[in-house]
Amino acid sequence: MEAIISKELLSEILDKKVVVDDISNIELKENTITFIEDYWDEDEGSGFYRNHTINIYELAHKCKEWALSKGYILMSKPRTSSSFATCVFCKNGKCDYEDDLWDDFRAGTEPEAIFKACEWILNQKDSHAH
């Protein structure tokens, strides 16, 4: 099963000064994301582990703040009985959920849609770095 959020994005959002390979076991249980961080201790070396938990809605909010720091304003709405949860980028101060020209990320839940949009932003940054 694919993780709800990539370790690359999780590391970026939470500003962990770790190599992304050091984050593992990302799981979602009852609106809480848990993951394990394998870290290096300057005195003791490697092999130390920390368990982390964060509420999915808090993480989604941090993702929106991170996106804003990258120049993107994200607008999201929860799933309704007739549609998926969506997240769109606002351009030039205007947001429109119905216009096909807008970047539209859909998922089963609002946080997942936000994570998808942020993964896209992260991939844009990576593609410009090469």
What's the structural blueprint in terms of helices and strands?
Elements: H1 7-13, E1 23-29, E2 32-41, E3 45-55, H2 56-69, E4 73-77, E5 85-90, E6 104-107, H3 110-129
Antiparallel strand pairs: 1-2, 2-3, 4-5, 5-6
Helix pairs in contact: 2-3
User: What is the helix/strand order?
Assistant: HEEEHEEEH
Number of helices: 3
Helix content: 25-40%
Q: Structural class of the helix and strand makeup?
A: alpha+beta
Mean pLDDT: 82
Distance between the termini: 30 Å
How does the major sheet shape up?
A: 3 strands, antiparallel
Spatially, the strands of the biggest sheet line up as: 1-2-3
Radius of gyration: 16 Å
How many strands appear in the DSSP assignment? 6
Contiguous uncertain segments of 5+ residues: none
The dominant shape is globular
Q: Hey, roughly how much beta strand do the residues contain?
A: 25-35%
How would you describe what is shown here?
With 130 residues, this protein is of the alpha+beta class. The chain is built from three helices and six strands. It has helices at residues 7-13, 56-69, 110-129, and strands at 23-29, 32-41, 45-55, 73-77, 85-90, 104-107. The strands form two sheets. A three-stranded antiparallel beta sheet has the order 1-2-3. Helix 2 (56-69) packs parallel to helix 3 (110-129). The mean pLDDT is 82.
Quickly list its features.
130 residues; alpha+beta; 3-stranded antiparallel β-sheet; 3 helices; 32% helix; globular
